[in-house]
Amino acid sequence: MIESITISNVATYGGEPEVLNGLSQFNYLFGSNGTGKTTISRVIANEGDFPTCNVVWKGGTKLQPMVYNRDFVERNFNNSAELKGVFTLGEKQLDTLDKIKSIKAEIDSLTEEGENLNATLNGEDSASGKNGELRTLEDSLKQACWAQKTKHDAKLQGGFEGFRGSQDKFKNKVLQELDSNFGELMALADLERKAESIFGQTPTCESLVQSIETTKITGHEKNPILKKRVIGKEEVDIAAMIKKLGNSDWVREGMAFYEENDKSCPFCQQKTTDALATSLNEYFDETFLSDSKAIDDLATDYATEAARIQQQLISIISNPSKFLDVERLKAEKELLDSKITINNQRISAKKKEASQVVELESVENVVSEIKSLIDLANSKIAEHNEMVANLAVERDTLKAQIWRFILEELKSDLEKYKSTKNGLDKAISSLAAKIEKAKTDKAQKTIELRNLEKQTTSVQPTIDGINAILSSFGFRGFKLATAAGSTSYKLVRLDGSDAKTTLSEGEKTFVTFLYFYHLLKGSDSDSGVTTDRIVVFDDPVSSLDSDILFIVSGLIKGLFEEVRQGNGHIKQVYVLTHNVYFHKEVSYNPKRFDIAMNEETFWVVRKPGAVSKLQKHTSNPIKTSYELLWAEVRKPDHSNLTIQNTLRRILENYFKILGGVDPDKICMKFDGKERMICKSLFSWVNDGSHFAHDDLYVSVDQSTVDSFLNIFRAIFEKTEQLSHYKMMMGEAFAEETPTA
Known about the structure:
By secondary structure, the protein is an alpha/beta fold. It has 25 helices and 13 strands.
């Protein structure tokens, strides 16, 4: 049977879906003409014609919908010269009937089995079960995957390109990578660094940092002249004195002044002998001069080489490579500069006092560190340039590494997902196979059943049944007969002449209903007689007299008993009507105590504006027509177009009961426009509601409606009937006196 019906964007129903849910065996829908009842019956009859609507069947098993509405009447009576024959099972071939009963029981069992399996697969609500568990599992993994995307998107989004806009796509990509990714697992910091380079602006090749040649400067530090005491020739007569005084450097310095002073002593200004000049020249011989020159050359070469290195470092630091640790290089250069300064000073001291032993500060460790920094930068530059030369491959490699990292982050989630999904997939596959087998077995049994039905069906029982009902209720001027040479029906007078075109509207409606009623117990073909079905009655008593109304309601209530007892093939019934008396009659159940029973649901179909609305009630909402009129007044969203007529009908009903009321005297209690409104209401009462009062017409807008409601209440107040007004308004009653 049907569990729920959703209706939207069709006929008078708007875009906001209206839902009939929690449906039971018997479902009563009450509503005025034009509120949207027939639309519901049409959706049930042909749900495929209404793509914006949805019908949910229990266990996914769709039953045959049989709908009595004006479409059925038009199709089977007005537009057809003859009525199709209704085939029902005969009662003579008992063996065949027993086989039919047995096979039907097997089909019912297979149907129940399929529904139970489907409930396990999809849940009772078609949204849970094993498929629901799988959807929950998939959604859980999707959220976990998306959390990783959100966490790393700022720096790794280049690796997620093409999958960043959809949670489903991202999750599917993770599952795809799970089966195929063999990328290297890298640290997040390394991935972010590479991503900044590879996924940033299109990179270009970088120039290598110029290498520093330090062999010469470190070689100068080991020059033997630095540790050699450079003095004159010891065999010379003055050597002993110079050695004793230790003033060789002083004497060497004074030689320049001695030569310039024309070989006179620069202190006493006495002319010296040629022997002294000879002794001095012999003391500072060729060896001494050669060593002195070596010191001078060392001073020049060291200063030149040091300046070259310093200048090269200044150039590197002023325009550093992004791959170079320039801050560390600056620190090392400062250390180198200080050592070079010290060494230049020590060499200069050696030059001045050649007899002194000098040891330079070693720059080997500093220049080694500087060279390491440059080599490391050049290694990164080479790696970068190789990446630029092969960017597409590098990008693919990095993407694989990023997804490998994401897989590692999701490792526990993915392991749980795979384990759970494997179990669910096996269960779902098994259930689907069992459901398919149940369907196949049911289809085979159904074919067998149809063949048996063809052996024992007849259209004659329907003729006998309809004619018996017509006769018993006084319709003796026409009857149903078999059309010559066919299995169809025709309506004939007692003399055999055609009666279809001369029937009254009430007779047509009654005959068509009886035809539908018998069709419920059979089929319009020689098979399908035992098909399970649901039934919809949409206003079946239109144009019928009150006595026929009770006949129709009695027949329908008889079907209710068959459904309750499970004797027939009808599994669910819908009754839609605008007739209060018919609704009360057909829905009457002495076992009900105010609240609706489990076997039934009650609905009201309304159209307060231009859009139809469905409202479910926990009890039968239809009491009497008089109570319904007051219910319309109590509603805050009543129809402005019909409220005036509703108020008039209440006054007509109530003041007829009181009797002896002079409407003119009541209206004289009002003035001006209020009196006109009062007269419009009572004129309707006096004239019997048979025509419109053009001279008393008031345009209907919200302010006018408010005036109607205020005068309506004032009428009860001025006739001292406010207690009745208060009782009927219930919780909607306002204590303050309204302003007319």
